[in-house]
Amino acid sequence: MTILANKTDPVRAGSGTWQDQMKWAIRDLRGLRDALGLADQGVSQLAAEAEFPVFVPLPYLARINPGELGDPLLRQVWPSGQEMESPGHFSTDPLGESDATTSSGMLQKYQGRVLLVTTGACAIHCRYCFRRHFPYEQSPKSMAQWEPTLAKIAADDSIDEVILSGGDPLTIVDHSLKNLISRIDEIAHVKRVRFHTRLPIMIPQRVTDAFLGILASARSQMIVVIHANHANELDFSVEQSLLKIANSGAILLNQSVLLRGVNDCSEALEELSERLLSCRVIPYYLHQLDPVAGAAHFEVDIEKGRQLIAELRSRLPGYAVPRYVQELRGEPNKTVLA
Ligand code: SF4
Predict the structure, then answer these.
(1) 314 C-alpha vs ligand 1 centroid, how far in Å?
(2) Is the dihedral of CA 203, 284, 224, 207 positive or negative?
(3) Is the Cβ atom of 287 under 6 angstroms away from ligand 1?
(4) Which residue's CA is the nearest one to ligand 1's atom 7?
(5) What percent of the chain has pLDDT over 90?
(6) Superfamily for domain range 97-336
(7) Mind listing the pLDDT tens digit for each residue in 228-279?
(8) Ligand 1 center–CA 60 separation, angstroms
(9) pLDDT at position 137, please?
(10) What average pLDDT does the structure give for the chain?
(11) Bridge pairing between strands 101-103 and 323-326
(12) Model pTM?
């Protein structure tokens, strides 16, 4: 059943549990068009939707201006017919992650850090996602299935950081998350656990007392890396949730992607940095777009990106300027562009 969002009912966007909000999310193009009063754009848009379905939770929807196709938040979730035109260097595995898979559900690209693909589920479908074609069905689905991978981490004392990614690890319910963190915490040489998540932004209700308890009680240093691309994503309810995470003792960082039509001007990036700081989040990375098939229309020229960072440096303190980086397949670290 398609659930149509009601733009005139902000109460619904701010109510319910995070699981309710996952259930109430808009899951098709027709629902998104109806909710925002937008016109049908024809068969190529339907083909884009068929390639990667729409998923937009109501709290995020409520931050989009109805009827504005150029809205920077809408651009991130709006299927475009342009997704069907991919230049040759855009691929389904832009970072070579199939080569970096070392155990079931585990990727190792960099020295000392491993990444666990904890789930394929997300609280939003970002059209530029570099894992939009990822074979999630091959990742473990239960604690029992994670055990061989955890044994590998325990046997390798060069690993001092475990990154929980996906999908979005915060789509996992708190008691399962607690079990996973507890098992990782038992491995003495792991010093840090890092979450890569958009959920506190998409559905602020996800920052539950139970999740905050997990962050506060873990032995390892907890690091929460959120993903916001535009200041409009960070409304009052998101700010409240982020402040709770900061108060738990976790380190709070943001990574963004430089996206054409979303944040490719210095004013938008400056406003994002200022807003992040007011939520006690350090602007950490600005990523050059990964060349994933279907996302070429978001690409910004690297020289323009460097120019934007130079403009930010002239206006903001150093800690408010993200490092502009690019991930290149097979490289031992990210390449700093500016
Ligand atoms: S939340 Fe992250 S993993 Fe999920 S679709 Fe967006 S970019 Fe991809």
Answers:
(1) 31
(2) negative
(3) no
(4) 129
(5) 86
(6) Aldolase class I (3.20.20.70)
(7) 999 999 999 999 999 999 999 999 999 999 999 999 999 999 999 999 999 9
(8) 14
(9) 85
(10) 94
(11) unpaired
(12) 0.95
- Give me the pLDDT at residue 9, please: 62
Strand arrangement, sheet containing 161-165: 101-103, 106-110, 113-117, 161-165, 192-197, 221-226, 251-257, 282-287, 323-326, 335-336
Spatial separation of the C-alpha atoms in residues 159 and 165, rounded to whole Å: 16
Residue owning tokens 């009680």 = 217
Q: Which helix (H) or strand (E) holds 17?
A: none
Per-residue pLDDT tens over the stretch 133-171: 888 888 898 999 999 999 999 999 999 999 999 899 999
Q: Would you give the DSSP letter of residue 82?
A: G
The sign one gets for the Cα dihedral 317, 336, 294, 304 is: positive
Which of 54, 134, 198, 225, when mutated, tests ligand 1's pocket best, judged by the most ligand atoms within 8 Å of its CB? 198
- Per-domain boundaries in the chain: 10-84, 97-336
Q: List beta partners, residue 286.
A: 256, 324
